[in-house]
Amino acid sequence: MKLSCIDIGTNSIRLMIADFDGSKFSNVHKELEMTRIGYGVNETKLLDVNRMKLSAEVVETYYKKSIIAGAEHVFMMATSAVRDAVNADVFIEMVMAKTGQLIDVISGELEAEVGFLGVLLGNDRPEDKLLIIDIGGGSTELIVGDLDGIQFSKSINIGAVRLTGAYVYNDPVKPEEVVVMKSVITEHIEAVVSEISAFKIDSAIGIGGTATTIATMVHSVEHYSRESVHQLKVDQEELAQITTQLLELNVEDKKKIIGLEAKRADIILAGSLILEELLLKLKIQAYSVSDYDNLEGYTAYQYKRL
């Protein structure tokens, strides 16, 4: 069955069109457009009107591409920014007017569940107890589980866009801004680190824009593809080197780094700081990237309900 999934995140809108037989994906096509619909939501609790219009246009384009490709069902989900905004109904109505489709604004708990499910679909070590780290634009999902299911999950309201919008005012970022961000990160993750530390983690898996981008920077991946990115490994030392490099550069110089998408250059430092603090506090030496994530997970989740 050919299916489509559109993921409306805080930073980007992503599309996946693929064939799915209930257990395996094939003929997978993915693309994304960064619209930053969630920029400023942390401070105002409002989605910006122009960003909503742009995002609705991208969703409409992706919906039309899905229909042209022959998708039998088009699933649409929205996460942190739309979930937190008091005017989310305006955006939902915009998309409905353009596509006739109702967006599923999923909870942080369901976001964790479908992220976990997506990783399992691409994991070749089913016996491992996994820690999945999904640092998005507006929130970070942390999930512990294995083939028997999820044992722990938590959605934290810090993400690359949210942190940048709230605490970064200079380019390059000033040391005192980094100190504040690290303090905020520590405050948000302290309790969850204590809970996760009670588990014996075999493997840490990174999904989402931050974890994937750090890996493509470390490994100098010029052209993104599932084959070039899936299961790339990044250790603490490599992550620390990337963070140090980002601290020294302005946005224009960051755009020149191989593996860093230009539109992500202004927010990648905040994401890197979250990832670094998590690995350090959890005493995890490295993580691996999964290109299977909540797009696959949400598609599989909805497939079961058809």
Describe the protein in words:
With 306 residues, this protein is an alpha/beta fold. It contains 13 helices and 11 strands. The chain has helices at residues 41-44, 49-69, 80-84, 88-99, 108-121, 160-167, 175-196, 209-218, 226-229, 236-248, 251-254, 268-282, 294-303, and strands spanning 2-8, 12-20, 25-34, 73-78, 104-105, 130-135, 140-146, 149-156, 203-207, 233-235, 286-289.
Features:
Nucleotidyltransferase, domain 5, alpha/beta, 306 residues, 13 helices, 5-stranded mixed beta sheet, 46% helix, 2 domains
Layout of SSEs?
Layout: E1 2-8, E2 12-20, E3 25-34, H1 41-44, H2 49-69, E4 73-78, H3 80-84, H4 88-99, E5 104-105, H5 108-121, E6 130-135, E7 140-146, E8 149-156, H6 160-167, H7 175-196, E9 203-207, H8 209-218, H9 226-229, E10 233-235, H10 236-248, H11 251-254, H12 268-282, E11 286-289, H13 294-303
Parallel strand pairs: 1-4, 4-5, 6-9, 9-11
Antiparallel strand pairs: 1-2, 2-3, 6-7, 7-8, 10-11
Pfam families: Ppx-GppA (PF02541)
Domain Ppx/GppA phosphatase N-terminal: 17-297
InterPro entries: ATPase_NBD, GppA/Ppx_hydrolase, Ppx_GppA_N
Number of beta-strand segments: 11
CATH superfamily heading of the largest domain:
Exopolyphosphatase. Domain 2
Main beta sheet:
6 strands, mixed
Q: How are the strands ordered across the major sheet?
A: 8-7-6-9-11-10
CATH architecture assignment of the largest domain:
2-Layer Sandwich
Radius of gyration: 18 Å
Number of DSSP helical runs = 13
**Distance between the first and last residues' Cα:** 11 Å
What number of structural domains do the residues give? 2
Order of helices and strands: EEEHHEHHEHEEEHHEHHEHHHEH
Average pLDDT over all residues: 96
Portion in beta strands: 15-25%
Helix content: 40-55%
Poorly predicted regions are: none
The CATH first-level class of the largest domain comes to Alpha Beta
Shape call: globular
Q: Which structural class matches the secondary elements?
A: alpha/beta
| CATH domain topology of the largest domain | Nucleotidyltransferase, domain 5
